[in-house]
Amino acid sequence: MAVGPLVFLVATLDHRIVKRLHPAWLVAVAAFVALVGAAGFRATPGVMIHPLHEEFGWSLGTISVAVSINLLLFGLTAPFAAALMERFGIRRVVAYALLLVSAGSGLTVFMRHSWELIALWGVLVGLGTGSMALAFVATITGRWFVKRRGLVTGVLTAGGAAGQLVFLPVLALLVEDRGWRTAALTVAGAALLVVPLVLWRLRDHPSDLGVTAYGATGDEPPPPPPTTGAASRALGALRTASKTPAFWLLAGGFAICGATTNGLIGTHFIPAAHDHGMAEPTAAGLLALIGLFDIAGTILSGWLTDRMDSRILLGWYYALRGASLLVLPMLFAATVKPSMVVFILFYGLDWVATVPPTVSLCREYFGMSGPVVFGWVFASHQIGAAIAATSTGLLRDRLGNYDLAWYIAGGLSISAAALSLLLFRTRRAAPTAPPVPVPA
């Protein structure tokens, strides 16, 4: 009897809350959910490598090639997607990207040959997820936020970790109980369900709703309209940025970041744990736990980015990651030991904590073209991830274990810390680099 008035009261309160909120926060929520949906497919490689190997007889190296192409396109698509968002709008690009992810994941259930895995899992889904990569985060925060920009960057970046957290244990159980095809269809459906929300809540510019960015004073000049095609703007940003030492230091450090996260841990942690007798659902749960701690770590990193020098933050993040990877080979066992839980907590806090300070530095050095330049820096992240995914799979096929891969990754992470601190030497010269006429 009281259901009708209760529904009316809830709807009224919801309307009042939405009315009080700045629209930027609703856009951020829609972007967060889209990132979670895209993360679903990116969570699948680790739980599907062994099932694909067992069913089709493909080597881990062959399957890793498909993963590498996915990671590579995930990065290389980002700067062009950022430019496409400037020309055609964020909402339209993200909606089409989710459809690509859904189609690529769903069609894998019909594949019979390894080239089909590469075409669907590698190319189609790589293009879709790449259009919702971290350059999408930089575009949203650059357009919609002046205050709390670092914090929102951290929260949106954590969306990928949240997607991993939500999907990994479920996918692992689905693969074990019902097979990998059910898991692939689940991801396809999840990506498809996000499309209506994107079309409903995601908006391209604050001016579309008659407001300014959150925290804007009204004195900021409006972004200039795009005067060239998306490819020209993306390549122009790369040409200008590549003439500065800051770009290469950021890109080099972020390439190592990709190699030691998506390429190594994200792709090979579950198979490595399986080599030591650990059940795949248990290993997937540990990887999901990394995602849980990463949410806290990335949000904290965004908060720190608003308050500390981003170069110092990157130096600490990479150095601590390197130390943790050097001890990882000693922690694997058939059961979960307390030392492994400590590694998961420590590594999870650091997983993509590097993103908010990197986005901030791209904006500091490259001004209005920062989101597109960050797209290229992120492309280097995925190039590193692709190289690591394939080379680690080949090392495992040749040596029979992953130990050497963990040691190499630890050393590379420590070198990334050094690259980050070298950015102090470019601090005065970098802001004089001529800006690329691409709106942020």
From TrEMBL:
Membrane topology note: Multi-pass membrane protein
Domain (Major facilitator superfamily (MFS) profile): residue spans on this chain: 26-428
Annotated Pfam families: MFS_1
Keywords, ordered alphabetically: Membrane, Transmembrane, Transmembrane helix
Segment forming the signal sequence: none
KW Metal-binding (keyword) present: no
Subcellular location: Cell membrane
Main location: membrane
Segments crossing the lipid bilayer: 24-44, 56-81, 93-111, 117-138, 150-174, 180-200, 247-270, 282-304, 316-334, 340-361, 373-392, 404-424
Gene3D superfamilies membership: MFS general substrate transporter like domains
Region (Disordered): 212-231
Protein name as it appears in the record: MFS transporter
Native source organism of the sequence: Dactylosporangium fulvum
